[in-house]
Here is the input.
Amino acid sequence: MTDNDNDNYDAFRDCLFSAVVGKLTTGPKKPPKKASLASQAAGAPAEPDPSELAEFSDYLATEIFSSLPEQLQRLSHQSLRDEALSEKWSLPLTLTVLEELVAHISGDVIDSLTAYSLIVPPESDVESFLAPVLSGYISAVTTPPPKWIDTRTDACEICEREWVPMTYHHLIPKQVHAKVLKRNWHDEHQLNSVAWLCRACHSFVHRMASNEELARDWYTVDLICQREDVQKWAQWVRRVRWKKT
Here is the structure.
């Protein structure tokens, strides 16, 4: 694997981990169904444990990422200059593309997703679970370096982990900039303030409050980190450790 391949795998694993955590910590609690030997080996816990959840997510990421086409595994901002690749992997992904990708995922992985209630047929399927994971991955690996790159930190500003990919979070979400200025919540020069967060913490922040609430009440990292739920989350996610490859 080249460094870029490793970076892409790390980005995919981070997106998948966030999806798994989101499902298991906010979704309905259902007893796991009988799983295959592979999923039993992964060990489905009754309550999400950071180390076991990391191991399970790593297993899923390795199996699913290795099943993806090589061009998707090595996707980058520069590679999208190829018109065929740009058309193929433009967002949102079509159902045809998702079905094509899912067709190459092993039955053991699908059994594991079902055992953890990450998919609950017929209400949800592998395509619906994988769509946001792939969308997050494609966005992460194809986004050009932002103008705020000089503000980048070595560690997530919430959980302080250094061994996971960083993403930038608009502290005042772009979708509500017009409302922010109209209501005089903040000065215009504050609109492009960002925080550098790991994917898991980034997803947590957007689950904890709406865009309007983030802009009005939680527009700095210090304010976000004052919340009790964020402090508990940070303590939990700090215990996640990826195995060395």
Remarks:
- Residues 149-237 form one domain.
- The chain has a mean pLDDT of 85.
- The first helix runs from residue 3 to 26.
- The chain has two domains: 3-142, 149-237.
